[in-house]
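Morning F.,

Quick status update on the modeling queue. The single chain you submitted on Monday has been processed. Sequence for confirmation:
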Amino acid sequence: MSIFSKIITALRGGASEVGESIVDANSTRIFAQEIRDAENHLTKAKHDLTGIMAKQMQAEREVSRVKHSVTEHEGYATQALNQGNEALALEVAEKIAALEVELNEQVQANESYSNSAQRLKELVKTTERQLADYQRQLSMVKTTESVQKATAAITSNFGNSNSKLLNAKESLERIKAKQQNFDDRLRAGDALEAEGSEQSFIDKLDQAGIGEQQASASSVLDRLKAKQG
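Structure tokens below.
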């Protein structure tokens, strides 16, 4: 192989790889569009099916009409024979023969329309089932893609030596420290207020033994003994 041929082959291979990468990158979008295209074809097939079924109905009516006409002309021929008018009976027989040819054609047309309609009905049902399954598959594919994108985002944000997680932990600790400092300041304020209150002053006098003291059990007993003596 010449150098030029190899270059052409390499370019073709590269183009193929690029094409495959584009298809892979847009595979979900392509799949969704293919489903929409199939749905459009299904809609057209249903329209064609209604046309065939309408022609089948028309053919059935023609079969009934021609059959009735054959029966009617057979009666005319019989009456002509009964009257001894063979010429008229022959003329009617010719008409019957033509009607039977038409009847055979209408029967064949009716059978053809009936078979075509039946095949199309089966194809429509099969296609509808396939499309319903593809729609479910498309929904699952989209969900999977969303989960994978979320996973990739999490991995990108927190996978680099857990630096983002460490930063998040530091931020949390700073918030907790700030809240704890706020609570400590509140408790300190309450304590300071208590120290400056009247109750705090009384507590200090009691601790120093100054002011009115509450009698203890021992002092009460001593007083009673003094009264008896």
